[in-house]
Design goal:
single chain; 264 residues; alpha/beta; six-stranded mixed beta sheet; 27% helix
């Protein structure tokens, strides 16, 4: 069975996997959503969502709880399929290929579209073992994927880290396989301001190599971190624009009401 995006390049001479080849640097429709509806059983959670997420930029999803932000995010790597009774209409493509293509191996898709969750979930192993776990599953032996973030305490238990350190470890683990897209579902919601600032600094560094989509309830974080922002309300995409434009001069009254605190 073919794996996802078979144009993926092989490892270089040092054993470090290259970023998969893309059609062009800075592709505007790197990740594309078209007329997408999503259902939990008979309850519709997303309505006719269409948007293009550009390559190697940070795109933020904002909106009140229950508006569909995380639901859409988890469709990008088909995590929602772990829930019984879900269904969808419409299309999501990565580099022009449907993520729902029956020929795609879901595990391979999730290697290409990594995710970091709201609650950090390190394995009960050493820091080193946490980061190289994914490489071992993928059959890689390279140990050069460890960045400075985790190199000072490699053989200590990951469970002994602070909350912020655990979350940065989970980010390091997520990018060890060099995914095309990194999804972040409220990664800083349980962190203090200092730990949040470190994660945001890391996001700025990572967007040089990865396309990042982040769900956040913190609108200040969206303004600090993202290049583009999408505002969702009751399962609908209300407005999607550059972050500067959306927060300084939104096109929709509903967006203005939300970002100025009139509701939400």
């Amino acid at each position: 069975m073919p794996t996802f995006m078979q144009e993926e390049q092989s490892s270089d001479t040092n054993g470090s996997p290259d970023l998969p080849a893309t059609a062009a640097p800075g592709r505007a429709d790197f990740l594309s959503v078209r007329k997408f509806d999503f259902f939990y059983g008979k309850k519709q959670a997303l309505f006719d969502v269409s948007m293009d997420i550009p390559e190697r930029q940070v795109t933020a999803f904002i909106g009140p709880s229950g508006c569909g932000k995380s639901t859409l995010l988890r469709n990008f790597n088909r995590m929602n399929e772990l829930i019984d009774g879900v269904s969808h209409r419409g299309e999501i493509t990565l580099l022009g290929r449907s993520v729902f293509d029956p020929a795609i191996e879901v595990i391979a898709l999730r290697r290409s579209v990594g995710i970091v969750f709201q609650k950090s979930n390190p394995f009960p192993k050493s820091i080193y073992e946490n980061v190289i776990y994914g490489l071992r599953i993928a059959g890689r032996k390279n140990k050069g994927e460890l960045g400075e973030e985790v190199c000072d305490r490699l053989h200590e238990s990951a469970l002994g880290l602070s909350g912020g350190q655990m979350q940065r470890l989970c980010i390091a683990r997520a990018i060890a396989n060099r995914p095309k897209v990194l999804l972040m579902d409220e990664p800083c919601s349980a962190l203090d301001p200092i730990a949040t600032a470190k994660v945001e600094e890391l996001i700025h560094q990572l967007k040089q190599d990865f396309t990042i989509v982040i769900v956040t309830h913190n609108m200040q974080q969206a303004t600090r971190c993202s290049d583009r922002t999408a505002f969702f309300y009751l399962g609908k995409l209300v407005e999607y624009d550059t972050t500067q434009k959306l927060f300084s001069n939104p096109s929709e009254r509903q967006t203005e009401d939300y970002i100025t605190g009139r509701f939400g």
